[in-house]
């Protein structure tokens, strides 16, 4: 994958107010598409340029071949039918082909159907509630640099329901991760060595499906019930506990480090799930050292008691660059593997899962982009 043009090294990241989406699923998508139409056209144009480069063919032909060789719509219709309507609304509002918007949601699914590992560099961690500290779920979202400048925070309000969600996304996408006003939060890391299935539920729909659950137990049941379109690790948290699940087409396996009292962390290599692609060989995976280095960096840092609050410790971990080549915070440094791959830390999220759920988010690498705190029903503040 050739490096993308990026402004990550020089731009000043600012966080716009959340984009409020309410009403029926189609109405939510329509508002998303209409409000962000110009941004959607620009970021989709950049994405198509990447597809053309990767597959050495016209981007629309690549999209048609991918959708023709997979069958995700029945799974979306079965498990998260409202999101199918929301995607159709985005396409209509943005005045863009439905097939293009559908394919744009399938980031991890396109990665998982590649025989070459060229992406998937997110770092996640979760803490159960302890003493006076609430539970936390946190993540650095590392994706392609062409998405820089198109970060968006969605504020979803469901019709005929008191359920609300904050969802980190990019223009035209239904979401990367998020939390709801019931203090259920989720983040995910691609596990490309694990088997997926071409008729399963895509990751973006899984994230949004979890955010429609009111408890961690309901969220875990959802993750154990659906078919997974791609290998993925999910950390799901609630007011008291966090749960880590490595998910593949044939297995959903809990991961819990021994002796850590419910604390979990993960990067992009499987630790307990052995449902590998038939073609996978660890010795041929050039990105295993990167994932391992980030995992070990988090483990070393977590082994030391926090000097301040748990929130302070999480921010120190997510802004860290212990390895010049394999940092947790990918800010396009000259020695980073991310730079050579055209990747960067698109955003950083910290979900506070207490009586008053809150989201701390930075748009861009958190070592240079400030966090802001969002609470349901209140204005944002710097953090």
What tags apply to this protein structure?
383 residues, alpha+beta, Penicillin V Acylase, Chain A, eight-stranded mixed beta sheet, seven-stranded antiparallel beta sheet, 22% strand, globular
Summarize this entry quickly:
The chain has helices at residues 25-35, 37-55, 59-68, 73-79, 81-94, 98-104, 107-112, 203-210, 216-225, 288-302, 310-318, 337-341; strands spanning 19-21, 123-127, 135-144, 151-157, 164-170, 177-180, 185-190, 232-237, 242-247, 252-254, 264-266, 343-353, 358-363, 372-375, 381-382.
Compile the SSE list and pairings:
Blueprint: E1 19-21, H1 25-35, H2 37-55, H3 59-68, H4 73-79, H5 81-94, H6 98-104, H7 107-112, E2 123-127, E3 135-144, E4 151-157, E5 164-170, E6 177-180, E7 185-190, H8 203-210, H9 216-225, E8 232-237, E9 242-247, E10 252-254, E11 264-266, H10 288-302, H11 310-318, H12 337-341, E12 343-353, E13 358-363, E14 372-375, E15 381-382
Parallel strand pairs: 1-4
Antiparallel strand pairs: 2-3, 2-11, 3-12, 4-5, 5-6, 6-7, 7-8, 8-9, 9-10, 12-13, 13-14, 14-15
Helix pairs in contact: 1-5, 2-3, 4-5, 5-6
């Amino acid at each position: 994958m050739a490096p993308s043009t990026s402004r990550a090294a020089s731009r000043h990241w600012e966080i716009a107010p959340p984009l409020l989406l309410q009403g029926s699923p189609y109405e939510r998508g329509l508002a998303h598409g209409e409000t962000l139409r110009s941004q959607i056209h620009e970021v989709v144009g950049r994405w198509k340029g990447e597809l053309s480069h990767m597959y050495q063919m016209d981007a629309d032909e690549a999209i048609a071949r991918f959708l023709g060789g997979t069958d995700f719509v029945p799974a979306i219709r079965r498990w998260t039918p409202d999101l199918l309507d929301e995607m159709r609304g985005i396409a209509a509002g943005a005045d863009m082909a439905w097939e293009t918007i559908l394919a744009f949601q399938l980031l991890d699914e396109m990665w998982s159907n590649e025989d070459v590992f060229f992406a998937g560099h997110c770092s996640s961690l979760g803490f159960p509630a302890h003493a006076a500290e609430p539970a936390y779920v946190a993540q650095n979202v590392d994706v392609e640099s062409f998405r820089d400048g198109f970060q968006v925070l969605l504020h979803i309000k469901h019709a005929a329901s008191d359920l609300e969600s904050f969802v980190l996304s990019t223009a035209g996408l239904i979401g990367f991760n998020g939390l709801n006003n019931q203090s259920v939060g989720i983040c995910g890391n691609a596990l490309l060595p694990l088997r997926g299935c071409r008729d399963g539920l895509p990751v973006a729909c899984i994230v949004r499906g979890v955010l429609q659950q009111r408890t961690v137990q309901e969220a875990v049941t959802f993750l154990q019930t659906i078919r997974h379109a791609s290998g993925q690790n999910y950390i799901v948290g609630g007011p008291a506990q966090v749960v880590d699940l490595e998910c593949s087409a044939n297995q959903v396996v809990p991961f819990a480090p021994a002796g850590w009292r419910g604390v979990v962390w993960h990067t992009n290599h499987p630790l307990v799930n052995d449902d590998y692609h038939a073609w996978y060989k660890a010795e041929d995976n050039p990105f295993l050292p990167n994932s391992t280095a980030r995992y070990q960096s988090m483990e070393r840092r977590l082994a030391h008691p926090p000097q301040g609050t748990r929130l302070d410790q999480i921010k120190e971990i997510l802004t860290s660059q212990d390895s010049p080549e394999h940092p947790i915070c990918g800010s396009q440094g000259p020695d980073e593997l991310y730079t050579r791959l055209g990747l960067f830390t698109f955003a950083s999220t910290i979900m506070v899962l207490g009586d008053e759920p809150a989201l701390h988010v930075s748009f861009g690498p958190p070592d240079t982009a400030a966090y802001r705190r969002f609470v349901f029903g209140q204005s944002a503040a710097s953090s």
